[in-house]
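Amino Acid Chain and Its Fold in Token Form
===========================================
Structure side: the spatial fold of the chain, written down as a series of whole-number tokens.
Position: the record begins directly beneath this header, with no further notes in between.
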Amino acid sequence: DRYSRIYEFGEEIGHVLNNADEVYLFEFPITSAKEPGIDIDMNYVLQHVKNGKIIEETQEWADYFKDYKDSIFLMMSSKNVYDFREMLISSTK
């Protein structure tokens, strides 16, 4: 499950993400089932990231990136990030 993977590898994930200039994380989906004994959120990873923050999948956050014209965005998730990708593409044109 999501939570146990993040719980097990959160520190390593954070250290790898430090290779990026900036890191933006989405919170777990509200509908994802928590696992017994594991009560974490994405702050668990964020505490290991030097230049990161948690953002929401909203048009306002997509607009935040409007001046990132010559940038590479790498999105990885176990949930659907395609809607945010489309908002991001529209905002950076």
